[in-house]
Amino acid sequence: MPKGGPSAIDDPSWDDAVRASTGEAVGLGGADVGSPVLAFGDPRVGIFGPIVSPPPTGPEAVRLFDLVCEAALNPRFFELKRGRPAGAQFGPRP
Predict the structure, then answer these.
(1) 88 in a domain, yes or no?
(2) CB of 20 closer than 8 Å to CB of 14
(3) In contact, 33 and 26? CB cutoff 8 Å
(4) In degrees, to the nearest 5, what angle opens at C-alpha 72 toward C-alphas 58 and 16?
(5) Looking at the domain assignment, is residue 82 inside a domain?
(6) How far, in Å, CA of 10 to CA of 31, rounded?
(7) Considering the domain boundaries, does residue 3 fall inside one?
(8) Residue 34's domain spans which residues?
(9) What values do phi and psi take at 78, rounded to 5?
(10) What is the pLDDT of residue 33?
(11) Helix H segments across 30-89?
(12) Which residues of the chain have pLDDT under 50?
């Protein structure tokens, strides 16, 4: 247990909200997607990803986010993928 008390993962009061959020994500992204699902807009759309390693920061992160959202708003767009040359690389977190 982390110093200072229990973490949210150990707190059952979050369970219903997490289930509802996961259900919404799967409903928007499709039953064959995994996590993460980016959900946004009105009407809401959902898309799997993006999976990025190492994660970008600053203007590069904003540009990627904008491009992914733009692609997701096209109702004919459904997938973009390429192989991974190496394992995950974790960079700095904002």
Answers:
(1) no
(2) no
(3) yes
(4) 85
(5) no
(6) 27
(7) no
(8) 8-73
(9) -140, -15
(10) 84
(11) 58-73
(12) 1
